[in-house]
Amino acid sequence: xxxxxxxxxxxxxxxxxxxxxxxxxxxxxxxxxxxxxxxxxxxxxxxxxxxxxxxxxxxxxxxxxxxxxxxxxxxxxxxxxxxxxxxxxxxxxxxxxxxxxxxxxxxxxxxxxxxxxxxxxxxxxxxxxxxxxxxxxxxxxxxxxxxxxxxxxxxxxxxxxxxxxxxxxxxxxxxxxxxxxxxxxxxxxxxxxxxxxxxxxxxxxxxxxxxxxxxxxxxxxxxxxxxxxxxxxxxxxxxxxxxxxxxxxxxxxxxxxxxxxxxxxxxxxxxxxxxxxxxxxxxxxxxxxxxxxxxxxxxxxxxxxxxxxxxxxxxxxxxxxxxxxxxxxxxxxxxx
Length: 336
Hints:
By secondary structure, this protein is an all-beta fold. It has a single domain (about 5-335), classed as Methylamine Dehydrogenase, Chain H (7 Propeller), CATH 2.130.10. It has one helix at about 330-335; strands spanning about 5-10, 15-20, 25-30, 40-45, 50-55, 60-65, 70-75, 80-85, 90-95, 100-105, 110-115, 125, 130-135, 140-145, 150-155, 160-165, 175-180, 180-185, 190-200, 205-210, 215-220, 225-230, 235-240, 250, 260, 265-270, 275, 280, 290, 295, 300-305, 310-315, 315-325. The longest helix has 7 residues, at about 330-335. The chain is globular. The relative contact order is 0.19.
């Protein structure tokens, strides 16, 4: 089962900014309303809201215009992951007791389902908002029908716990990765396997599609971030980090040019505090920029739909503005 987590919104540094490939991450604010480690962060489809969950059994909703805490869901058990409904009016939550809940953000009405039927590790919603995908410790992936509020299918193919997954931007594919050290790409129309990708030598803990949907990135405990070609299944490039332990959180910027990744290797700084590292990596030209160390327990990294904001959750949530990158026209229109 997924270890107790931490969220980050590009909590990439203890400096004021990070620059790489012409990209600068400038710290905007630090959110410390949670009293325990933050487990997950998710942006609403329009980017106007952000949701976080924590070991303090709270789910918070934030207004991303002013970073004010605007809503609270108190969970009976520790919430592990959150996902916004397509209209941004509801939020889905999976907790440590393996329940899936739907919460009306404005109404406060919460609908709790029976247990999902497995120990959950992540939660993702399809781009059309019709499907939830939930990876499990039982080697399976639960596919949940949002409209009918019921289990639609269980995908089987992994040989060990499934730790992370993500939909392609067009929703036609799903990628999953886990402790069997392989990635599987699924066709979401018939839920059949399209591709199995092998090469990592340790648990895969984070997977994400590129904005084009033609590539997949994975982070694993073998100290490598890899980029794979979806059509051929071949690993195109890998970033080996010899002193780091497992990039548990990676995100692909919507402009498609670079990845952001954080490791989990705890080390001591000059003051004796445990720190971790976040990098910006351009797979096309190999450019890498390492940020100054950040507080550890980072498990998740989030980028807003328009690509202008990164959130990193650990002992707090650091918010960064992304500067110096050309954004996709669709993202600009969505923001405006």
